[in-house]
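Protein modeling request. Please complete all fields; requests missing the sequence field cannot be processed.
Requester role: graduate student
Desired output: 3D structure, token encoding
Chains: 1
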Amino acid sequence: MKPLRRRRRYWPLVLLLVAAGAQADNYSFDVSQFEKKPFELNGYAELKAENFALNRDGAFYKLNYFGKPQRQSLDRMTETLELAGKVRQSIATLDFRVHADASQDRLADDRNSRIYEAALSLRPKPGLTLEAGKRALSWGKGYAFNAIGFVQRPKDPNDPQLAREGYVMADGDFIWNPGGALQTVAFTPVLVPVTSDVNGDLGASGHPNPAFKIYALYRDTDLDFAWQAKGSRPARYGFDFARNLKTNLEIHGEWARILQFAKPVTDASGRVTTEVGNATSYLLGLRYLTQGNTTYIAEYYRNGTGYSEAEVDSFYELVDAAFARPQPNPLLARALALGRGSYARPFSGENYLYFRAQHPDALGVVYLQTALFAMVNLDDHSFQVTPELQYTGFNNLELRLRLYLLHGGSSTDFGEKANSRKVELYARYYF
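Delivered output (431 residues):
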């Protein structure tokens, strides 16, 4: 109880921020605000409260809470601080983004701090940029997933617009405008070296990992071709596109091919084999804006590196068998190891449908946005539905309330998660 009581003292801070932000907004136009300043600093501070209804029958509850006090629910409080800045001098720009968070619940206190981005870029002339440092690239046109995001950490489909940690790299941008139907062409080469101390989570060390992306704007269609050489990870290549079919209707897609991808697969007895073969992932999506200002986003995602329904069934059978025997036992050790590996990846299945609808100024209230998003595993028909309320009427203050509802039977993607419901409330103050 002590961690939660200790966190309660922060709620007066939230109320103070709300009161301070409740002043009437003053609008003015200042040309200097649009000029590039030699130094910029901004960021946000966030206080988030979460309540989890735990799914004690779920495979990942059993694995994640093994050896811990067994619970029906869990409350968690998280404080986050993120700072971003730029320093400009002549042709050089140094920019950075740092992130720190601390979370507390009845089982653990966690604190993390990391540099998301810190890179020096040089722009000796228009159309040419050279850069080195830690950078979070954003390759791909998908909203919730990116099949061609070869040199970036994956998005969280529950919050795709969150900033992500980058990789240490050297990259550049070469842009020119041929004219005519081919309006713009850009070439982006990248080197993402992996050593024992740098980019270790990308794959095996000792490789420079060259990659590139070619962008083209052709007759109002955005096109990208991306490639990454074999190195720390298998070689891969792919493309994406995006085009407005109408002023309020956009279509986008991605396609990627990964060569000789190695996937560990277990059977119900815990015997693990490695399947090696080419994997194809792709995405097709639509974005539609109605006359009433409601935005709809729908995406189908085929995860070529994911597990089939039969493969995850074997994993769940292994977990059930491991916990049915006296503990400890060899099956339990294997299940715990696999539960921390590729089977634990978010959305590790093969076929998903993502849908989001959002509407500003809902219920006639200015600055109140309502939203609903859902994720469906099309193989086992389990799903997650999340309604959301967001209010931004206070100066520099954002309030958001979300309810995550997971539904699925035994041996299904969302039915075996560690929790069956989550309520999330946060206050985020921008500066």
